Amino acid sequence: MFQINQLVVYPSQGVGRVERIESQVIGGTRADFYIVRILSNNVTLMVPVKNAPNVGLRPVCSLRTGQAIFESLRDRSDFTGYTGQNWNRRYREYSEKLKSGDLADVAYVLKELFLIGKDKELSFGERRLLEQAMNLVSMELAYAVNRDQEDIRNGITEMFSDVLQPKEKEKSEKRA
């Protein structure tokens, strides 16, 4: 059970704060809901308390897990690349990983797309997935390690600076 003011992660939305827990009668049945405000876009979600684990609502990762995610981003030994895989299959796989709510899966997508971008220019869809993964990872890691999200973004971008295409390098340098 989550507590009021606790930071939580809702898959594909990011980090939110439990604002309150309220009961409502729906179809003659009383149900308890977490009212969660997503911090990045101020969207409010109603998540049934008994269904929270099924939809992937979870606490923000620990400091130790956050540090392990940084290490997994640095480790490129598991990079499989895109050989033999068409874009549609990869897109579906990456989209599922982003929706899973598992930070390690989201970080995997982020790393894969950065590394794929080393060999070819990313398509619009790939760039969109990369940006979504970057937002999800950087936001959660910022709360986990108690740093500014922009610092985390810059750190991740720097980690992959050797593989960024010239246009992406320019964009990341302008943000800094």
Low-confidence stretches: none
Number of alpha- plus pi-helical segments: 7
Strand percentage lies at 15-25%
Could you describe the largest sheet, including whether it forms a barrel?
Answer: 5 strands, antiparallel
Shape estimate: globular
Q: How many structural units, i.e. domains? A: 2
Integer-rounded radius of gyration: 18 Å
Please identify which CATH superfamily of the largest domain we are dealing with: CarD-like, C-terminal domain
In CATH terms, what is the fold-level topology of the largest domain? Answer: Methane Monooxygenase Hydroxylase, Chain G, domain 1
Q: Tell me the total number of β-strands.
A: 5
Query: How much helical structure, as a percent, in the residues?
Result: 40-55%
Strand order of the largest sheet: 4-3-2-1-5
N→C terminal distance: 39 Å
Helix/strand-derived class?
A: alpha+beta
Q: Write down the overall mean pLDDT.
A: 89
Helices and strands, in N-to-C order? EEEEHEHHHHHH
CATH architecture of the largest domain: Up-down Bundle
Give an account of the 3D structure.
The protein is an alpha+beta fold. It has 2 domains: 7-59, Thrombin, subunit H, CATH 2.40.10.170; 63-175, Methane Monooxygenase Hydroxylase, Chain G, domain 1, CATH 1.20.58.1290. It is built from 7 helices and 5 strands. The protein has helices at 52-55, 63-74, 87-100, 103-119, 124-145, 149-159, 166-175, and strands spanning 7-10, 14-26, 29-38, 44-48, 58-59. A 5-stranded antiparallel sheet has the order 4-3-2-1-5. A hairpin with a 2-residue loop joins β2 and β3. α3 (87-100) packs parallel to α5. It is globular and about 55 Å long. The chain starts with 6 loop residues before the first strand and ends with a helix.
